[in-house]
């Protein structure tokens, strides 16, 4: 797979994959054992039906197990794509940091990352988001229309960087 064609996979940057792995390791190695210890202690205290520590612990254990399963599936399907290895630096592909201007010349900087690492508040947009899909393959000077629930908006690509 090339850095520019992560369409059918779960693309993720090396940093994003490390964050998923760190969360998984923390849950499995720290949180889950702590909760298991609390549940075992609470179970030894007798009547479990009115034991808040036991009931909360079991509920939290299910939440952790559910999140571990989700993280495991995401990591198995992940395809680590290093934006620094992108060959065509003149076009927008996965990992691009793009400076955009709208119709009112207001600028916005976004970085196209994996869906598991998106954070709009930090300017990190997921690979499958409407804006990222519209920007794919764009060059500096290209205008792209993005269809959003609130209507259409046109963006012009001002700069592309893969730093």
Identify the strand order in the major beta sheet.
Answer: 5-4-3-7-6
CATH homologous superfamily label of the largest domain: Transcription elongation factor, GreA/GreB, C-terminal domain
How large is the count of helical segments?
A: 3
Number of strands: 7
The CATH class of the largest domain: Alpha Beta
| Residue-averaged pLDDT | 90
Rg is 21 Å
Family: Belongs to the GreA/GreB family. GreB subfamily.
Domain Transcription elongation factor GreA/GreB C-terminal: 90-162
Protein name: Transcription elongation factor GreB
Keywords: DNA-binding, Elongation factor, Protein biosynthesis, Transcription, Transcription regulation
Q: Explain this structure to me?
A:
With 163 residues, the chain is α/β, with parallel strands linked by helices. It is built from three helices and seven strands, in the order βααββββαββ. It folds into two domains: 10-80, Transcription elongation factor, GreA/GreB, N-terminal domain (Helix Hairpins); 83-161, Transcription elongation factor, GreA/GreB, C-terminal domain (Chitinase A, domain 3, Roll). Strands 5-4-3-7-6 form a five-stranded mixed β-sheet. Helix 1 runs antiparallel to helix 2 (52-77). The longest helix is centred in the first third of the chain and has 30 residues, at 14-43. The radius of gyration is 21 Å and the shape is elongated. Keywords: DNA-binding, Elongation factor, Protein biosynthesis, Transcription, Transcription regulation. Pfam families: GreA_GreB, GreA_GreB_N.
